[in-house]
Design a protein that fits this description.
By secondary structure, the chain is of the alpha/beta class. The chain is 29% helix and 23% strand.
């Protein structure tokens, strides 16, 4: 593997030795050395993901692309947030994804336009969102299809419903894009077990320096804490991401008999996921969890009344940056008997991060000091350091490119010390990876 333009001598040497050479071009348009705006361009024709990075203002992939086809790993904003912009003007590249990912992409695009369309130069309009299902092609796991002259196969990535590893085969070189993945079971989705043969692996590194505690232990502690507050007469607000985390919390509440309400975008996502039972671990359990929860459809007056009840409330947003949480937190925050249980990673600069670190946060434009108890539980849907290494152990003979993390370069050094050929590309960087084999092949 080498930077573009730096491998001529090596290639010529191999040719003179009787080897055939095949090259694959890879451009990192986002997601390299960061979490957000994932976008990888293969052979100037095939685009893998096209996300946005949540910031003020939001950040989009660099450069410009005219892909022949797009393949999407899963329906999270940092992987699909810019997808509709690819359909502007006369452009109509086919966009390949699983069926749940298509639904999530549309929902997130509509929400992005609603929240931010007037506050910054949003790269797409409602018209581009409308075009999305016209060009979308959905696929099941392990069913190979063609896109921009490449053979593509999806494998369950164990992250959220519909999430996929993407195997790209151009006839000579096989590239595995892990996207976001998990190597332990969640209640909502099963872990990834797929390890297809690959010459090149682009691997996420979100938690490359973190070892998650046992999932069963975290769930037990969470349930004990919530039940304790309810027994004391308090209310528990559970901020949760709409996609994946809300449904995980509902499954836990149902399994342990915790009375709960669900509010925000998570209600829409929960209803949608029931249409795709093949992409969840236990469709019957999800139906039971939905029946167990009470769905909130009213206005802030109803929410304030619910906040006085002796219940758990699962609501967006997961980082307290908007959504119905803006009503629930002020309603319960002054009572020290009440509790706020954060269930996901809190990005630096978000109200959720501030609440954990200082006991206060800017809620709906006003700084608020919270007297309610605040706790955090690591229900991550990403593989930890052990999980990442477990997956990469199957690819010791491959070229490994690390992305989707804030310590990619350091992790690459660690892997090289263990005889894994790893490097950490930078945003905007173009690489050429090459495969050499004897002419007898």
């Amino acid at each position: 593997m080498s930077k573009e333009g730096e491998c001529i001598w090596t290639i010529n040497e191999h040719k003179q030795s009787g080897y055939l050479i095949h090259m694959m071009d890879i451009q990192f348009l986002g997601g390299a050395g960061e979490v957000g705006r994932s976008a990888i361009y293969i052979n100037d024709s095939l685009l893998l993901d096209y996300g946005l990075k949540t910031a003020t203002p939001p950040q989009f992939p660099v450069g410009s692309v005219e892909p022949e086809a797009v393949v999407v790993s899963h329906g999270h904003l940092d992987h699909v947030g810019s997808i509709p912009s690819l359909l502007s003007g006369a452009r109509r590249p086919p966009i390949h994804m699983t069926a749940p990912t298509l639904e999530l992409t549309r929902t997130l695009a509509q929400d992005t336009l609603k929240l931010h369309g007037g506050s910054y130069n949003c790269p797409f309009t409602a018209e581009e969102i409308r075009r999305l299902p016209e060009v979308a092609e959905t696929h099941q796991y392990t069913q190979t299809f063609s896109a921009a002259g490449h053979q593509i196969t999806f494998y369950n990535a164990g992250h959220i419903p519909g999430s996929a590893h993407i195997l790209v085969d151009d006839g000579e070189t096989r590239l595995l894009y892990t996207a976001d993945f998990n190597t332990i079971d969640q209640r909502l989705v099963s872990q990834t077990t797929a390890r297809p043969n690959a010459d090149v692996v682009i691997c996420e590194t979100t938690y490359s320096d973190i070892e998650h505690r046992a999932r069963e232990t975290i769930e037990t502690e969470f349930v004990k804490s919530v039940k304790s507050t309810l027994w004391e007469g308090g209310t528990v607000v559970i901020p949760a991401f709409a996609i994946g985390r809300t449904q995980e919390m509902l499954l836990i509440c149902e399994a342990h008999g915790i009375p709960c309400y669900v509010d925000g975008m998570g209600t829409q996502i929960t209803n949608m996921l029931q249409q795709y039972p093949g992409f969840v671990r236990n469709a019957a359990a999800l139906r039971e969890a939905k029946s167990h929860a009470r769905f909130v459809t009213g206005r802030d007056g109803q929410r304030r009344r619910i906040a006085e009840k002796n219940v758990a409330i699962v609501t967006t947003s997961g980082m307290l940056s908007g959504g119905p949480a803006m009503t629930y937190i002020p309603a319960i925050g002054a009572n020290p008997v009440n509790k706020i249980t954060m269930t996901g990673y809190q990005v630096e600069g978000t109200p959720g991060r501030s609440l954990l670190e200082t006991g206060g946060a800017e809620i709906d434009g006003q700084h608020m000091t919270v007297s309610a108890q605040v706790e955090a539980y690591d229900f991550s849907a990403h593989a930890d350091s052990d999980g990442i290494r477990e997956l990469l152990d199957a690819y010791r003979d491959a070229t490994v490119l690390l992305n989707h993390g804030d310590r990619c370069a350091r992790f690459a050094e660690e892997l090289r010390s263990q005889n894994i050929e790893a490097s950490a590309p930078e945003i905007g960087q173009s690489l050429t990876v090459w495969t050499a084999w004897a002419q007898a092949r």
